[in-house]
């Protein structure tokens, strides 16, 4: 750490003794089995609390499932987006690497304002989280349907950009 600090023109007061002191304080007893690491304060009781009642267990399970599906769908969409753009571009006469990745950058950049818009919308008393999610879901469905009606690569790009900004 001191070499990195010296390289950056700074000083570092961290010593090996400081690190050893922290390591000694993080000793785990057999009475408290920990899940994450030796210095973790989480135990199985924290996880058991998420399933304490039938309703809480059902809710926790659904949340885990939904977040898993969202994570999988989002990753797969972003992984296959260049393929989708290139194959659709080929149909319209331009499936080159340049056009494909240019379109992907445009889509990614236009998704950024959607995140800011959503963070603003969830704070509105008249919309809140549920209203924002309902509007976003409706727009997502509409824009995904519209991508199937695109008759040129520019129309496809436009609909996918609208989709990207409505998803967040």
Report on this structure.
This protein has 168 residues and is mostly helical. The protein folds into 2 domains: 2-49, no CATH class; 75-167. Helices cover 71% and strands 0% of the residues. The chain contains 7 helices and no strands. The protein has helices at residues 2-7, 16-25, 44-49, 54-91, 97-121, 128-147, 153-167. The longest helix has 38 residues, at 54-91. The protein is extended and about 70 Å long.
Query: Biggest sheet, in brief?
Result: none
Overall, the morphology is: extended
Number of structural units classed as domains:
2
Q: What's the helix count?
A: 7
Poorly predicted runs are none
Strand tally, please? 0
What class, by secondary structure content? mainly alpha
Distance between the termini: 39 Å
% residues in beta strands = under 5%
| H/E topology pattern | HHHHHHH
Radius of gyration: 25 Å
Protein topology:
Layout: H1 2-7, H2 16-25, H3 44-49, H4 54-91, H5 97-121, H6 128-147, H7 153-167
Helix pairs in contact: 4-5, 5-7, 6-7
In short:
This protein has 7 helices and no strands. The protein is mainly alpha-helical. Helix 5 (97-121) runs parallel beside helix 7.
Short key terms for the protein model shown above:
single chain; 168 residues; mainly alpha; 71% helix; 0% strand
């Amino acid at each position: 750490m001191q070499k990195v600090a010296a390289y950056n023109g700074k000083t570092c007061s961290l010593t090996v003794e400081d690190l050893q002191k922290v390591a000694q304080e993080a000793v785990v007893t057999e009475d408290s089995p920990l899940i994450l690491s030796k210095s973790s304060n989480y135990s199985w009781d924290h996880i058991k609390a998420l399933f304490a009642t039938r309703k809480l267990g059902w809710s926790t399970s659904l949340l885990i499932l939904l977040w898993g599906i969202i994570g999988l769908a989002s990753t797969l969409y972003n992984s296959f987006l260049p393929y989708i753009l290139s194959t659709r571009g080929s149909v319209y006469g331009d499936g080159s690497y340049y056009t494909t990745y240019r379109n992907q950058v445009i889509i990614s950049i236009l998704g950024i304002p959607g995140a800011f818009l959503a963070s603003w919308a969830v704070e509105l008393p008249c919309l809140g989280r549920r209203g924002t999610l309902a509007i976003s879901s409706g727009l997502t469905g509409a824009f995904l349907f519209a991508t199937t009606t695109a008759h040129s690569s520019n129309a496809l790009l436009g609909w996918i950009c609208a989709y990207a900004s409505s998803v967040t």
